[in-house]
Amino acid sequence: MTRIIFILRELARSLYRHPGTVVTSLLSTSLLILLFNLFWVVVGTSERFYKNLLSEMTMDVFLSEELPDSNLPALTGEIKAIRGVLSVLYISKDMARQDLASQVGTDLLVGYDSLNPLPRSYSLSFESEVLNLSEIAEIAGKIQTLPGVMEVSYSRAWLEKVENTKSIILEIGLVFGLIIFSSALISSANNIRLMTRTRVIGFQQMLLLGAGRMFISLPFFIEGFLIGGLSAVLSWLIIFYGYHRISFTQIEIVIPDMNQVYLFCLATALLGGISGYLGVRKLLK
Hints:
The protein is an alpha+beta fold. The protein folds into 2 domains: 2-52 and 162-284, no CATH class; 58-154, Alpha-Beta Plaits, CATH 3.30.70.3040. The protein has helices spanning 2-17, 19-55, 72-80, 93-104, 133-144, 156-196, 200-208, 213-245, 258-281; strands at 59-63, 85-91, 121-126, 149-153. The protein is elongated. The model is unreliable at 198-202 (pLDDT under 50).
């Protein structure tokens, strides 16, 4: 019980004697974590945006003139059996003509009533788990080998740009997160080190009397834990406030679920506690 009272008294003394340093540490850490949270939201939002774009991706399979209509059901079944293909829409010559006329605003094939030069085709949509460059290319290769298929067309260049952009955002996020957490850890450790310098003689006397280093540093571990946890909570409160105040018509803002937020706050508090221990460790040598 005496040890608990000592720990709480040392914690209260540190917070009481250095309120400015504590507030500065809290605000600076909150700002750093807020930057990371904003980037987390941006990454989640962009991921959802790309997923919605990819869900609209289709593949056109053009059929040769030599393929008889009687073979279409068998070919349709073969395409549907390929893993990842969600739907197969057959487009006849007449449907292709109507679609072309609706796109350009006039029928360009007037005079071709007896001979429509547009090819028959399929329009394919895909399940979400195969909407990536490698699997779409694999599906296109399988379809290309089927008898009666003249050409397979899909937005390969666009898909490459989407995947490259996602990869760049992920790499930037990893580096950005590492920099922010390192900065928060160093900042908190330095602030606690400044608060403990005025009491270094007292620490040394306690060491001579047999007090353990972990026992002496525990109040500062708790202080760092509190600062880290409160900073995370404050930053997320700002995020949620902005989320309910700002809206976009074409972009859905994605916020992590509450379980992820809770775990993040706990992890940040633990990092704060570690920084508190690091801040006082050198003074206990």
